[in-house]
Structure formats: structure tokens, C-alpha cells
Amino acid sequence: MDQVSLVIILFAALLVPLVMAKFKINSLPTAVMEIIIGIILGPSLLNIVSMTSSISQLSTIGVIVLLFLSGLEIDFSLFKKRRTALTPLEAKQAGNLPKYSPVRLSVYAYTTIVVLSLLLAAAFKVAGLFSDFWLATILFGTISLGIVIAALKEKELLSKAFGQTVLLISVFGELIPMMGLTLYASVYGSDSQSLWLLLLILAVAALLLLRFKPFFRFYQNINKSTTQLDIRLAFFLIVTMVTVAESVGAENILGAFVAGIVLKLLQPSESTRERLDSIGYGFFIPIFFISTGVDLNLRTLLTSGKTLLLIPLFFLAYMIAKIGGFWVLKLRFKHANAIAGTALTATTMTMVLAVLRVAKAMKTITADQSGAFLLAALLTCIVSPLIFNKFYSAEKEDLVKTAVHFIGANLSTVPVAQQLRKGWYDVQMYTNHPQNYKTYHAQAPVELMENFTAQDLEDHGVFDTDILVLGHIDAERNYELAKAAHDYGVRRIIVRFEDRNVLNEHEDELRELGIEVYNTPEANITLLRSLIESPSTLLMLQHTENSIYEVRVVNHLYTNVQIKNLQFAKDITISQVIRNRRIIVPNGSTTIQYGDRLIFTGSKQDAPRIRQALATAN
Questions:
Q1: pLDDT reported for residue 137
Q2: Which InterPro entries does its entry note (predicted)?
């Protein structure tokens, strides 16, 4: 019976996404459908699958892997110092929106969730509906990070301010309840250790982080398809942190979550993350969700009058606990999107399942209460995505042009700025030479500054841009300003170097930071050589209908896809693929990977649209 039940579960896991694709069911997350299928297969309806010891063990591994992958999803770059508000130009185009960063908004929003969760838990206790105040607070404050990420990816919002804000609120909605659950289990659990031992989890995590920090710098050189060192490291981290967590009286899911954070800080490649996703979402996690539905016996639950009363009350509590986020999101985003974001953060399933699993093991909750909490959470995952998809529309600030700031107005930079202004770019130039200002300010938007120190530029908003071009003739100054801009968090920096003899080490240092370096002599030499070797190069560059473009692929919709299968393959010609600083000459069967830089030619009408699609992070 064990093997038959497992075969049925695995077949159901295979069938669910196929059926959803066939009937175009996009409004419900796959995880919710898997739980529903589990309910149908279990004792609630068909009763052809039963929970066995082997399925229970696989389900436990599934929740551990799920929480590990959730920790791996946290984008710590959002917490770095970078522009925290719109630039003056963006503010003007976006209707002078208030200057609130995603980090600040998320902190405010989740603070309201904590306060409302405490009040709701107190109300349930006073009314005699649920007496465990702290457990109720933890449950009402949870948010399903995985479901939120899936919804944001579908609309390609993870790179937008709105998506980053909702994502961070969800991170808090998984991390804070996780810590709360650990403290709850430590205080009320029968076999829990002293609270101070929980610090060992962080100590071991820090030790692993320091020990394996250089891992991804050299493993590519020794990795083989038969070794898969990065995947071995991932599972070593999982097992180590889960073992440590259980040894100090904490929950295994906390160890798994911390292991995911450790691996994220080690900065694995995108291919590593995709293979881990394949292992998790391809096998273990579907078993966890389907077995959760199997374990839920609706026949028993729905015969209890108290359970029938608790389901809608718990559902309302889940929704009301998140409602304070609406007024916080309204500080920066439009009314409809504030509703959409609030609704999306009301989805709660992953952590509810984990919390209920722990509470049932501690015997602090009855089966009826657990079922009511779970069914109410299931309802949020059905209702909330529907509300989100109904109300969300693009923000004005998402439609602004790419901001490009030039430091230095001269014969090399002004013509480039003039041409960029004709496209989807907002250009601003800065110079500290009065004579250059007089010469060029009528031809391009040039602003005169007295000094070009890093602090002056930062205070003046020069670093608040998408692309910063350091085209000043002073190479030493460009070097210093490039490092300052990188520390500030400018997304892309292009630096001009003319003094090759003095600054070779500086150039290497900047390249290591991901800063792009160029110099006029090399550019001229490269162009002349190209003209000699390929006479049509000049024709290509000067062609009025077609041009050469470069784009970095960060849209998952186009990764792991062969070039010949791209939906716009007939509209462009990809001549080179740059991967890990190596040039690949592609053919139709070449598979595009995340982070690849594509050099392609296409019409000036189609290419910008295609480049934007490939470069939109989701």
C-alpha cells in the first residue's frame, strides 16, 4: 500500500501542472491545486491514498526543502544603501510620488500586521474561540513567500519598486513568524533546551558562511557533471543546519530556512538555484503539498459545528491582519495597487502548514482547530491572487525612461547624449568646467557643478540613476568616483580610462567589481580592425533601419530556452553570447542561460521592445 499511494501521489504531481496548462488555470497557485488534489485523493472523498510512514518522511523532507528554497529567495541587495527614492526626473514623470523606499514601506507594513495579529489573537481568546494567544498571533502574521514570489514573477514585478516592497513584506511574514515559532516551541515544548542555545544556530550559520565563502569562486574550474559540487554543498548545509536546530530544541524548518540564507549569501550561480528548484519542486515539495491535502479529512472536520464557525472567522482574521498594509502602500503606490499588494500579502499557506505541524506535535492544538486554520489559509490562496490580478496595473514610475547621467561634458560624451535622448533614455550631464558648460549647454542638458567630489555628487543626486557614465578626462578621478558610485548602489557604471600606464591595477579592480571600463584609443583600434576584417561593419553601424544591440538576460521566461525556440527568433540575429566573460558563437540549438549577454542585430522598431523583454527581471 505504501508504494501504491506514493505512485498515485507522484502521478497526481505530474498531472496537476499539465491539467492547469491545458485548461489555462492561471488564477490559482500550483501548490493550492496540489492540496486540493490531495483532499480529493484522501479520506475526504475518494480515499485511495493513505498517509504511510514513507510518505510522511518524504513530506517532512519536502517542507524542509521548501523552507530552504524560501531562504534562498531573499534578495539581500534590497537592504544595501542605494537610491531610496525617485530621482527628481522620475518624481516629475511619476506625479511627484512620496519618497518611501521598499525597505521602509515593508517595515511599516509588517509592523501593522504584527499589531493587528496581536489584537485579533486577543479577541479570539477573549471570545473563547481559540485560547492559545501566541500561537494565534504567529498564524495570523504569516505570509506565503513562495506564492507571493510566483505571482510577482508572473507579472515581472520583482525588479520594480512595487514588487520589491511586497516581496520584503512577505520575507518579514515568513522570517518573523519563523523566529516566533522557534521561541514558542522553546518556551512551551516539553523537550526544549535553554533559549540561549538558539544562538548556536546563528553561530554555526556564520561559521559555515565564512568557511565556504570562496567556494563559488573556484568550483567552476573543478566541477563535473558527475560531481555537482554546488548541489552537494546545498544539501550539506541543509542537513547540518537542521541537525543543529533540532539539537538545541528548535524546529528543523528554522534550520532549513537559515541554510537557505547561508547559501544565498554565498552567491551561487543562477544555474545552481535552478537545479535546486528542479529537485525541490520536481519531487519533494509536491509530495508535501499533496500529502497535506490527504491528511486533511473534511468528512470529520465539517461535521463539527465549531469547526464550521472557525473556518470563516480564521479566514477573516488572516485577511484583516494584513489590511493595515493598504494605508502604508498608499504612501507610494496608487490606490488600486495598494489593494492588490495588500491582498497578495494576505496569502498564507507555507508557514501555516509548518506552524500547524509543530503545534500538533506539541499537542497545543486540536485536529479540528488545525483543520480550520488550514482550510482558512487555503481560502486566502484562492481569493487573494484573484484580487491581486483584478486590481494591479503598472505604476507610473515603472513607465519612466532609463536614466543616464554623464559626468563630464566633452566631444566624446555630448554626441552620445544627443543620440540617446532620441530613444528611451532620460539624459543629464554634469561638468565642472565653465567653458564646457557654455559650449554644450545649448546642445544637451548640461548642469554646471563647482566640485566633483563623491559627497557633492551624492548630495546633488548624480548617483540616483540607472546608468552612470564617467566620461571625464581625469582617469584618477574617474576611478575614485566609480568606486563611490558602486558603494552607493548604482546599477550600471561605465568608466573612461585614458592613462593606461598608471592605472592598470585600478582597471582590474573596477572590472572585478563589475564596472565597465573603456578608453578611446582601444575603441578606435577595435573599430578600425573590424572595418578591415569585416568591411560591412561600418554599414551595419550606420544603417538607418537596423542596428547592433546588447542585452543581459535576466527574464526567466527566456532562460533555458534554445535560440530557435524564442518567440521573436525571426526578428533578430544573435551573433554572440557572452557567458562568464567568454564569447560563444551561437547556433539555433544554443541554450540561453540566466545572465548571458546577447549581442544581436535587429530593426530599430523591434529591437528596443525585445531588449526590454529580455532585460526585465522576473
A1: 95
A2: Cation/H_exchanger_TM (IPR006153), Na+/solute_symporter_sf (IPR038770), NAD(P)-bd_dom_sf (IPR036291), RCK_C (IPR006037), RCK_C_sf (IPR036721)
